[in-house]
Amino acid sequence: MKGGSARAINLMRDANTPVWQRAYYDHALRDDEDLLAAARYIVANPLRAGLAPSIGLYAHWDSAWL
Hints:
The protein has 66 residues and is mostly helical. The chain is built from three helices and no strands. The protein has two domains: 1-27, no CATH class; 31-66, no CATH class.
């Protein structure tokens, strides 16, 4: 996925520059347990980034995965 999307993006940009951050990796979700953990990780990103002190105070937090 990373390689294909990076090539497509660089073709559109007429560039040959990095698209993904270093140490980024993709991960296949194998079952509902993996899906729930991944969804909660994504929902918590604003907290880790310091955009809000709690997820309920983040303007765009609405999620069925909490």
